[in-house]
Amino acid sequence: SATWWATGRDTAVVAAGERSVLGPLAVKRAEGTAQVADREGGARLLRISVDGLPPTKGYFEVWLMDRSHTRLVSLGTLGPDGSAVLPLPDNVDFAEYTLVDVSDQPFNGSPEHSGRSVVRGPLRL
């Protein structure tokens, strides 16, 4: 799976949505925020920041998740500071994918969710 980073001039934000709180799951001190922003040209970005991340031997991946927690779309990875600005895919039905999830992923080559979610919260458009 490819990870796309949104950088440069093409990330000019024209409108930002409501900020969502991401609550702790596996690590009680972890918490974060996620905010959708509309970019010039109609594309959307997800700004995410998580504090209190646990030590990891892998990396932290950001996902869109459906209500049943069975369907997932990978958005990319958090940076070393626990934050990222990631493009939201145009072809995702946001009425179905209503949650943002951050997982602790091992370096094992598997594109699947590890099952170790650190924080999760609603996706507010």
Helix/strand/pairing category? mainly beta
The total of beta strands comes to 8
Low-confidence stretches: 1-10
Write the H/E string, N to C: EEEEEEEE
Outline the structure in words:
This protein has one domain. It is globular. A hairpin with a 4-residue loop joins strand 2 and strand 3. With 125 residues, the protein is mainly beta. The model is unreliable at 1-10 (pLDDT under 50). It is 0% helix and 51% strand. Strands 5-4-7-8-1-2-3-6 form an eight-stranded antiparallel sheet, with no helix packed on it.
Task: Give a short synopsis of this structure.
The chain is an all-beta fold and 125 residues long. The chain has no helices and eight strands. The model is unreliable at 1-10 (pLDDT under 50).
Q: Which terms would index this structure?
A:
0% helix, disordered N terminus, mainly beta, eight-stranded antiparallel β-sheet
Topology at a glance:
Blueprint: E1 13-24, E2 31-39, E3 44-51, E4 59-66, E5 72-77, E6 83-88, E7 97-105, E8 117-122
